[in-house]
Write a structure and sequence with these properties.
CATH architecture of the largest domain: Up-down Bundle
Number of strands: 14
Helix content: 55-70%
Mean pLDDT: 77
């Protein structure tokens, strides 16, 4: 399970889970490196610059040592010929001597070269990382868009969004930063160890007998400290949740006089954080104290041993300076690998989840250009033949049973029945959100499975009871079903939907921002924008989920008129809760417990004394009378 904590803005965030480092997980991570292929030239070049940057950095201690020897040339030791004597450009680097001015010039040259190498490695790796991550994000977003409705019915969308954000950020950090630091650490370690053995083999073995011990202790302490820190973050997140829940339900808290109870919960949570933080402080204090003693003690021991070697002429003061600085680089690299190991575990966990999503089987939805035409047009007749359906999450519960239903082209079909009868499920099958467990749905006498989902859904419009508008302008929301529509087409659709009047009364007109989910518009205004959206799409089949049930009388009349304009000449399926709105339907289909109980016109069904439709109408009339 993902760890939760609060970021600097006080918002809850998800910390990526760690995964074991094994062959399978590493293979999953390497599979994502396929996204680096388009940029492999720059990626390889960035690796070269990482190596050159590490090499140029390690030249600095060498030049400092030579500067010290140049300041006291008599202190230079004569090195036996039996020791390693690599040379560069024909020079014996052990015995070569330069003037102070020359060394200073070489140091600034080294720093200049290192600056260029460091800039190039950061720039190239960041460019490669950002571009490859952009491709991963695009593919992942496309995959999520193609996932079936059953996927979203089993996932919490907010949590999914947060996890994706955290996982992709972790992968981005791994490519742009962690990978570079890991490779740089490897190069630094190899070059540093090579230098310290080259300077003095005896002292190298002395140093290596101390550094691994310190590194191991640092890793153990570091893991314990990070564990305690995560525990403190979790407890802090828990206290934040208490605050959020309390303030969201403040009316209930006050109504039940539960202020003291909530204070007790919060106090217990907060002091749990305090206790964990104090325990963590003990570990950190012990760790810092140990590191100060060990590091400085090790430096003192190495310096003491090195001073003895200087006395007997096996080293120079400059060599000892080089050695100490190279040892610091090696020790720091060892310590850094612990954090990189932790980051690697997080990255493997992130790539595992991303790859799992990318491999998931989505719907066969083809993302086409806006100008592409419908390949297989339909006129609008629909037929259900022995259709049965169960939701994938509840396969043992049969929601629809043996549904047989025919809708002729241009007919208005009303779907009525008690709540939970299966009316909305029938609409979901029409949109091919799900496939029937058995039976067939035919459009123009052609099996729905032979249509491409993109073709089919382009020819069906859906107007729900709870309208979903996106946070852009009114114009963008109306044009959602036909993004390449002209302004004239949008205005014409708004007029037909009885929406033009209120839109033109806004100062910004069609450019008015509707706010998140259309919050700046009233319920009736949102419904008319949704109807204009459906009119502009010009579908062959229309699905209406009681678009007037929650509106006042004036808005209901305007919306009802707009719906009548929308349904003209189209096959319409109207899910009706208010039965008075479907009296004029060509067919009224009464559904109960997943089966079709009755089919007929209003007059035909009212003649059935013990019919379910008549019973529902009588109940609504009785309720209306009581309300008056």
């Amino acid at each position: 399970m993902a760890k939760s904590s609060f970021n600097s803005n006080g918002n809850l965030k998800q910390e990526p889970e760690k995964a074991k480092i094994n062959k399978e997980n590493i293979g999953e991570a390497l599979a994502l490196f396929a996204y680096l292929k388009p940029f492999r030239g720059k990626f390889i070049l960035s690796l070269v610059f990482i190596a050159l940057s590490a090499l140029s950095t390690m030249v600095f201690p060498f030049l400092l040592g030579k500067m010290i020897d140049a300041a006291a040339p008599g202190a230079a030791a004569s090195v036996p010929q039996t020791q390693m004597n690599p040379s560069m450009l024909g020079l014996d680097l052990k015995t070569v001597q330069w003037s102070l001015n020359t060394i200073l010039l070489l140091i600034f040259l080294q720093l200049s070269v290192q600056t260029i190498f460091s800039f190039m490695r950061i720039y190239l790796l960041t460019e490669v990382g950002e571009k490859s991550l952009a491709n991963i994000r695009t593919d992942l977003y496309g995959k999520l868009l193609s996932m079936p409705m059953s996927f979203y019915s089993e996932q919490r969308v907010g949590e999914l969004s947060n996890r994706l954000s955290a996982d992709l950020s972790q992968i981005q950090d791994a490519i742009s930063f962690t990978l570079a630091e890991f490779l740089r650490g490897i190069f630094t370690l190899i070059i540093g160890l090579s230098f310290i053995f080259w300077i003095n083999t005896k002292l190298a073995f002395v140093m290596l007998s101390v550094v691994p011990l310190i590194a191991v202790v640092a890793v153990v302490f570091g893991m314990r400290i990070r564990k305690m820190s995560r525990k403190a973050q979790d407890q802090l997140a828990e206290s934040g949740t208490i605050v959020q829940e309390t303030f969201q339900g403040i009316s209930i808290v006050k109504a039940f006089t539960s202020e003291s109870y909530e204070m007790g919960r919060y106090r217990k949570s907060i002091f749990g954080v305090v206790e964990t933080a104090i325990t963590n402080a003990r570990y950190r204090g012990a760790f810092v104290s140990f590191m100060i003693f060990s590091v400085f003690g090790s430096i003192a021991f190495v310096m003491w041993y090195g001073a003895g070697l200087i006395k007997i002429g096996e080293m120079s003061a400059g060599d000892l300076t080089m050695f100490v600085i190279f040892s610091a680089f090696v020790g720091g690299t060892f310590a850094g690998f612990a954090d990189m190991f932790s980051q690697l575990q997080k990255t493997l966990g992130a790539t595992q989840r991303v790859r799992e999503l990318l491999r998931s089987e989505g719907e066969a939805v083809e993302i086409r250009q806006l100008s592409d035409k419908i390949l297989k047009p339909i006129k609008g007749s629909v037929r259900f033949e022995n259709v049965a359906f169960s939701y994938p999450s509840r396969p043992d519960v049969e929601v629809l049973k043996n549904i047989n239903l025919t809708a002729g082209m241009g007919e208005q079909i009303a779907l009525v029945g008690p709540s939970g009868a299966g009316k909305s499920t029938l609409a979901s099958l029409l949109l091919n959100f799900y496939q029937p467990v058995s039976g067939t749905i035919l459009y123009d006498n052609i099996d729905s499975k032979t249509f491409e989902l993109t073709d089919l859904r382009k020819q069906i419009a859906f107007v729900p009871q709870d309208v979903v508008l996106f946070g852009g302008t009114i114009k963008e929301n109306i044009a959602y079903g036909k993004p390449n529509a002209t302004h004239e087409e949008i205005v014409k659709a708004a007029i037909q939907a009885n929406a033009a009047g209120f839109i033109e009364n806004f100062p910004e007109g069609y450019e008015t921002i509707v706010g998140e989910r259309g919050i700046k518009l009233s319920g009736g205004q949102r419904q008319r924008v949704a109807i204009a959206r459906a009119i502009l799409k010009d579908p062959a089949i229309l699905i209406l989920d009681e678009a007037t049930s929650s509106l006042d009388s004036e808005s209901e009349q305007l919306v009802q008129e707009a719906l009548e304009n929308l349904m003209k000449g189209r096959t319409s399926f109207v899910i009706a809760h208010r039965l008075s709105t479907v009296r004029n339907a060509n067919k009224i289909v009464v559904i109960d417990k997943g089966t079709v109980q009755e089919i007929g016109t209003h007059e035909q069904l009212m003649q059935k004394e013990k019919g379910l439709y008549k019973k529902l109408v009588d109940m609504q009339l009785e309720w209306s009378t009581l309300q008056v």
